[in-house]
Design goal:
Radius of gyration: 37 Å
Number of helices: 8
Number of strands: 16
Shape: rod-shaped
Strand order of the largest sheet: 2-3-4-5-6-7-8-9
Helix content: 25-40%
Structural class: alpha+beta
Distance between the termini: 51 Å
Order of helices and strands: HHEEEEEEEEEEHHEEHEHEHEHE
Strand content: 25-35%
């Protein structure tokens, strides 16, 4: 069974995408940047003590809601039988005044029995390691010394706390689980003390007393619903009258050994069977590492951005495509590209860009799609052209752009470029990925080159989780896009944000692909 959870897989993927993003941010002093990145990432991962001054961590995935967490069983109800054994207590055998107090104890001759009690218990497991139980038991106890024996009707109401003994390195779910226990109880007794010689009554005592117990136990799970529990507990009773001898000089002690059958309610796996690291200790460690890595990444990006801005402020320097390579040295000054490719995009990116430009041109030029080397082809009257991310570009009525001026066509082209590339997100996350950075860099260039443009950002989610949680997640996604655009030179007053949550899905939420398409931020020029 694979115990690398979905959340952990996503975290590792996010860290990998962050690394890919760093690789794309070349173009200014690449040797210095790569060296700094490697040193800082190695340092923060190995030593865990890196702190970036005056930096805010990049957004981490929000904590999953209850609806998004795996289902576990927490509540169990059980029946149990308990053997009650009265221990011999010798500390007060000799009393002041010369009286002898030979303490009665269990299984001591024919007047005593193998004493039993039976009862119910309810158990609740708060996590993979800790649980509480509440139980009620009723039974009989006997004991004897050299001259007397007693018979007593007893009952117990107990509250117990249990801690499992689990290895943090284990990778296979548990069936057999040892545990330690402490309990606090209220016990009642109704005791008749009799002479062994003729069975005549000497005295009767009754009452109640507090008890404290410590013990060990062992649980075995037959399956996710049924389990058996074996436990033995040493119990100290806060009275000396439990066995009929009330000298007021000490406490009685008993051993309670029980076996019980439990049934678990709920859906999914029993949480008691899960691994020790699933109690969030590893999650907290991963969160701390992620924060340090994100701080390191942001510090590197800010450092590169500061040097870039300082260089860009020098007279005669311009970077039209905002790829970090000035036009003077950029072989593709109008298209964002890679330093390793002299400022031009990779071959795959060029193909995708040409396909995207063809779709845009088809809308702008009266829905006529022209492919190089072929005659113009008319598209259907109500086209919805798919872009490379699987979404559809904004629908435009057939011929809507015919007769437009060059300025109007330019505006329409920019609108389509912005709207046809929604920003996608991973499950339950508002972390931007490498593809998102690429799309947002294009949008930032359009907005900077056209100061009159404004943009609206609508955040969406899939239908997992509550409506209120998804509204918040949608807003966080839109804010993440807004903050990145602002970091690329777009003023905040030009950006409007709207959280749509799981309303208005773009695709069917019944499939993984559909859910992925719905986790988005849609951008639209105003």
């Amino acid at each position: 069974m694979n115990y690398l959870s979905k959340e952990k897989t996503k975290k590792l993927t996010t860290m990998k995408m962050n690394s890919q993003f760093l690789n794309q941010q070349t173009g200014l002093m690449p040797v210095l940047k790569n060296t700094a990145r490697n040193l800082m990432l190695v340092g923060c991962i190995l030593f865990g003590n890196y702190t970036a001054e005056a930096q805010t961590p990049a957004p981490l995935a929000a904590a999953p809601t209850e609806a998004e967490m795996p289902a576990f069983k927490h509540l169990s109800l059980g029946l149990k039988v308990t053997h009650l054994y009265d221990l011999k207590y010798t500390a007060y055998d000799l009393l002041p005044g010369g009286f002898s107090a030979d303490d009665a104890y269990g299984l001591n001759g024919p007047k005593t029995k193998f004493d039993m009690a039976a009862g119910l218990e309810v158990n609740y497991y708060f996590g993979p390691l800790f649980s509480l139980d509440l139980s009620y038991e009723k039974g009989k106890m006997t004991g004897a010394n050299t001259t007397h024996y007693y018979e007593s009707a007893v009952s117990f109401v107990s509250l117990g706390a249990n801690i499992d003994f689990k290895r943090a390195s284990r990778t296979k779910e548990y069936k057999l689980i040892p545990y330690g226990r402490a309990s606090l109880s209220r016990g009642t007794y109704d005791c008749d003390l009799k002479y062994k010689e003729n069975n005549s009554l000497d005295q009767s005592t009754n009452g109640s007393s507090m008890m404290f117990g410590v013990g060990l136990g062992l649980k075995y799970y037959f399956n996710e619903k049924w389990s058996v529990n074996i436990m033995s507990e040493y119990v100290t009773i806060n009275t000396d009258a439990w066995d009929g001898y009330d000298y007021g000089t000490g406490n009685d002690q008993i051993i309670k050994s029980s076996i019980g059958l439990r049934y678990a309610f709920g859906k999914g796996k029993h949480i008691d069977r899960t691994l020790a690291w699933q109690d969030n200790r590893v999650d907290k460690m991963e969160t701390k590492i992620n924060e340090q890595v994100n701080n390191a990444i942001k510090s590197i990006n800010d450092s590169v951005e500061t040097k870039f801005q300082k260089m860009m402020n020098q007279p005669g320097i311009k970077d039209s495509d905002d790829d970090g390579i000035v036009d003077k040295y950029d072989k593709c000054p109008d298209v964002a590209g890679l330093f390793s490719n002299n400022g031009c995009p990779s071959v795959e990116e060029e193909v995708v860009a040409k396909e995207r430009d063809s779709v845009v041109a088809a809308h702008v030029n009266g829905n006529t799609l022209v492919i190089q080397g072929e005659e113009p082809k008319e598209e259907p009257s109500t086209p919805k052209a798919k872009n490379n991310s699987g979404s559809t570009s904004p629908s435009r009525s057939s011929g809507a752009s015919k007769g437009l001026s060059d300025d109007e066509k330019y505006r329409l082209k920019n609108e389509i470029l912005v709207e046809m590339n929604p920003i996608r997100f991973a499950y339950n996350s508002y972390q931007l990925n490498a593809k998102a950075y690429d799309n947002l860099n294009t949008i930032a260039v359009i907005l900077r080159n056209n100061p009159t443009y404004k943009i609206s950002l609508k955040g969406y989610t899939d239908d997992d989780g509550s409506a209120s949680y998804n509204k918040k997640l949608a807003e966080q996604r839109a804010n993440a896009v807004s903050e990145y655009l602002q970091s690329r030179g777009v003023s905040k007053d030009r950006i409007a944000i709207l959280a749509m949550g799981k309303d208005s899905p773009l695709d069917d939420n019944n499939s993984k692909i559909g859910k992925s398409n719905n986790r988005r931020v849609e951008c639209r020029l105003e």
